[in-house]
UniProtKB/TrEMBL annotation:
Domain Fatty acid desaturase, residue spans: 68-337
Organism: Flavobacterium johnsoniae
Tagged with keyword Aminoacyl-tRNA synthetase: no
Pfam family membership, one: FA_desaturase
Keywords tagged on the record: Membrane, Transmembrane, Transmembrane helix
Name of the protein in question: Fatty acid desaturase domain-containing protein
Transmembrane as UniProt keyword: yes
GO biological process annotation, one example: lipid biosynthetic process
Coiled coil stretches, renumbered: none
Length: 359
């Protein structure tokens, strides 16, 4: 990773100082750094939904259609557990105790398949520092299918990427399970990301996690469900594709939207301070809607999460208005759309990135 230096603009520092003070005053009487009752009730509901649907997969009277629907519910609610529990645990905002957060982080990702430790390391050490900066944010690394940033090289196939992107997105989780995780673990290119964590711990947790994951989603159903192996594997693949699309719909447009900034620094220096950089590169969707925060684990309040990653996501509803008002006052950007508008904006962005003249 290429480390960069943020601007030291006094005006931008003043903006963030004022924003932090207003947020602190708003939440002063609350313990906002860790999970509250809303956090745990939601997590319990999703966990019960996930594992009750899993239990019912082995019912004697279940039909093929019933099995597939329950399997999708199992996978989808498992993804939402990752959003609601795992994401906060990776930022140590579920429990006060870091080890407790680590345990919750591990088990919250069990049905998703992405190694939680590797994901947490790259999410915090790369993405949260340098969102949308080529060579510094792993999340916008070049890929062989889509051109997501003007810093990526253009190829003729990208002219059609706005049309074939949904098919690529269906394989997001499977690609992470069977390819990305292994690259992040074994490639020397990502040693900076793993610094401070022993290789033995990385390998042990990786192997243990993959055993748990494949046992849960494939081996146990293959052994105990009353269906053919081909149908169970097909259920796994199609449910993963459906879950991947939900994952993409909620997240991809929060950084890859029409109007997002993709900083190309002068040498080692970025144009803005860290806080204002987050605003230029993030987009909220339906940030004031309770259903959106419930499903996305607060990821729809992307500006709040990037600016205040040490605050549990169930408190974002109380600071969104402060962010909007303060950015307007200090003439800083704040991108906010509905979910549909964000996805539409994402495909406009894909179309522009498919045009070498516009990109």
């Amino acid at each position: 990773m290429k480390a960069k230096y943020f601007s030291k603009s006094e005006d931008e520092k003043l903006f963030f100082s004022s924003l932090k003070q207003r947020v602190h005053e708003k939440l002063n009487s609350k313990n906002v750094s860790y999970g509250d009752a809303r956090f745990w009730y939601k997590g319990l509901f999703l966990t019960l939904t996930c594992y009750l649907s899993y239990y019912l997969l082995f019912s004697d009277s279940i039909t093929k259609i019933g099995f597939w629907i329950l399997y999708v519910i199992f996978q989808l609610s498992g993804l939402l557990i990752g959003f609601s529990f795992g994401h906060d645990a990776s930022h140590n905002t579920a429990f006060r105790n870091k080890k407790a957060n680590s345990v919750l982080h591990f088990f919250s990702f069990l049905t998703v398949g992405i190694d939680p430790l590797l994901w947490g390391l790259r999410h915090i050490r790369s993405h949260h520092l340098y969102a949308n900066v080529e060579g510094s944010d792993i999340d916008i690394d070049k890929n062989p299918f889509l051109r997501l940033s003007p810093t990526h090289p253009w190829k003729p196939k990208h002219k059609y990427q706005a049309y074939y992107a949904p098919f690529v997105y269906m394989f997001t989780l499977l690609h992470s399970v069977f390819m990305s995780d292994w690259v992040y673990l074994f490639s020397d290119e990502y040693d900076w990301m793993k610094r401070g964590v022993s290789k033995m711990e990385l390998y042990f947790r990786f192997i243990l996690y993959k055993i748990f994951y494949f046992s849960l989603v494939l081996f146990v159903p293959l052994l105990y469900a009353d269906f053919t192996w081909s149908f169970i594997v097909l259920s796994y693949l199609t449910a993963s594709g459906f879950t991947s699309m939900v994952f993409i719909i909620m997240l991809v447009g929060t950084h890859f939207f029409d109007g997002a900034d993709y900083p190309q620094p002068e040498g080692e220096f970025l144009e803005h301070t860290w806080a204002v950089h987050q605003l230029h590169t993030s987009c909220d969707w339906d940030a004031n809607k309770g259903w959106a925060r419930f499903l996305s684990g607060g990821s729809n309040c992307h500006a709040a999460h990037h600016l205040f990653p040490n605050i549990c996501h169930t408190n974002y509803s109380e600071i969104n208005a402060i962010i909007e008002e303060t950015t307007k006052e200090y003439k800083q950007p704040y991108h906010h759309k509905t979910l549909f508008e964000m996805m539409f904006s994402h495909f406009i962005h894909l179309h522009k990135m498919g045009n070498p003249k516009l990109g």
